[in-house]
Design goal:
166 residues; alpha/beta; Nucleotidyltransferase, domain 5; 5 helices; 22% strand
Length: 166
Amino acid sequence: MIILGIDPGSRKAGYALIDVQGKKISYLASGIMKYDHVDEFLERLGMIYESCSTLMDRYKPDEVAIEALIYVKSVDALSKLAQARGAMIAAFSHLRKGHIFEYAPNAIKSSVAGHGHADKESIDKAMTMMFGKINFKTSDESDALAIAVCHALNRNMKMKLMGKTI
């Protein structure tokens, strides 16, 4: 099963793909989708949708895991992040309706690094220990990998809670 992890953002977003076979998790690919070269936010939303649709077409993941909204100090930033996530989820829903899952940042950190307040370096270290050295372009990319791994480790419980057949 291929899982796509997404660290959402309105200016850039990280993505990572893993393959899960039983208890074995293998790294497939990761990268960054950049939108910050477009100044107009509403135009960026279309780009976000298109880039996520392209990811789905290219990799054909079985499930998608995305980070839930985080607390930010700026209402404007929160609004833009929420809208960007909405565009992403709309693109993913087109092909994977019912196979999209979200995880709170603390749950992701706890699953991969052992505690919910782990810093970026701890997440990077946990991913390196699990998959070996990967040259991440930004922490968005390593965070996306952590989101995918979190889902791989928690999907059975999450599916049961949602009343879905495993």
